[in-house]
Amino acid sequence: MKSFISTLSILFLLSLLLLPGCASLSSSQTETIEGNLAIAPLPATMQAGSGFLVIDEKMKILTNIKDFPHFDPFKVFNELFQRKSGYALPYLHDKSALKDSSHLIKVTLVYNNYNIESYNLKIKSSGILIVAGSELGVFYAMQTLRQIMRLDAVPDSKGSQRHWSIPLVDISDAPRFTYRGMHLDVCRHFMPVEFVKKYIDLLAYYKMNYFHWHLTDDQGWRIEIKKYPKLQEVAAYRDETLIGRFGEKPPRYDGTRYGGYYTQEEIKDVVSYASDRAVTIIPEIEMPGHCLAALAAYPELACSAGPFKTATTWGVFKDVFCPEDSTFVFLENVLDEVLTLFPSRYIHIGGDEVVKTSWEQSDFCKDLMKKEGLNNSKELQSYFIQRIEKYLNAKGKTIIGWDEILEGGIAPNATIMSWRGIQGGIDAAKAGHDAIMTPGGYCYFDHYQGDRETEPLAIGGFTPLDKVYAYDPVPAELSEAEARHILGAQGNLWTEYIDSPEKAEYMAYPRAIALAEVLWTPVDRKNWDEFSVRLKQHLDRLDGMGVHYAKK
Known about the structure:
It is an enzyme of class 3 (hydrolase). The chain has about 550 residues and is α/β, with parallel strands linked by helices.
């Protein structure tokens, strides 16, 4: 926290030196700035000025960096701005070529080792100054400017709106957490590429920086693996799908073959798209459980006898990968192809809900446990995870696993994703491991968010908007040193009962906006009543972006 404050102070002071401060308003006036500008997540500090700046065809972007080393932080803003105004803002690197030093978005990068996502955005009547810690900070400053301009609340104008008048303000900002994520399960129900891109667009708009893409499960394998074509031919499809609620007697099915998968070219396209929006995609390849679809394609990978079929219903299945050398060869070959597609340092390997009955009944597993000195099947799971982790660590990757991988002994370098409440995160942090918090009671957006009598069918639970907003990812049980291992949190969207992009949006929004503010905004700046005021304006923006959100 001290490094965050010092970095933010340096950027703030530098911005004041480069461009003198704007006029101050009275305390009663400044209290309304949050509601008037309606920025979400709420920035760390905001000071209002008096007057307005006009953005028109005279405006240019001037930077002190000729070639950004990672990505162009203006690209997304400028593409949107051109659709709304009919022209893009040119950007220059040579100030001497300018005849007029006004009407500039002047961008200065101050690279530092503290908070590369920090930025200062100062809107003056003569122009805009952005000082940032990296391209990421510039990108987030441009997203904030996009919100101030309310670009998304109006339709594409095809050039009819040539200028924009925006209020003066001075914002110094940086996120509270480094991990701000959303998850999407595309196994229970497949989501088209264009929707996945739209999902990423919304994450970027609300300054979320990780997209957890759940690509394999019992009900479908959704990623092309060229070495194993049956994963596309068999595992990507199921014979039919459950209708209604799981557990109904008798169960009902639709009788229609269902499935799909993303080609490697499609995945490369989505990864590039996300990179332009400062979003890192974390792929999840489930193991050793939740693998029934893979076993349907390659039954020899199981300890128990087949035949196996891609699951047509929900729940937890007893069939899991067998910890034989041939299984690890298969998984390593799969991961090798995954690594060529996803540059993320994190690879999610699942590890949840592993039914160990087949292991406990397997002579091979009994012999392996004796050979490795393992006392029980939980330790056998730890052996499985650690073997995969060693392979991925050698490739420069870090594994993330659901909190069950704590059982039987945590892999040496693993990051824990705590979903069964907060205890997994507490245990991980106390053991010196990083943790990402995603407890079901606060972060599962497949839960109901309103009256079950009027809401569409959901998996259960009750997680309304105000409960999400009230969440604090740092457990009170942790010391200050332990709390540093809490990287952030993530909203999860499991799709057993979400069969369309429209319903996925309905379940995710506006709850994802509340979570975004939890993860970005300083705790002492959060205020539910004030957030509710700003949210009303964001619903108009969601309308403009064509998002099918829940209206509460």
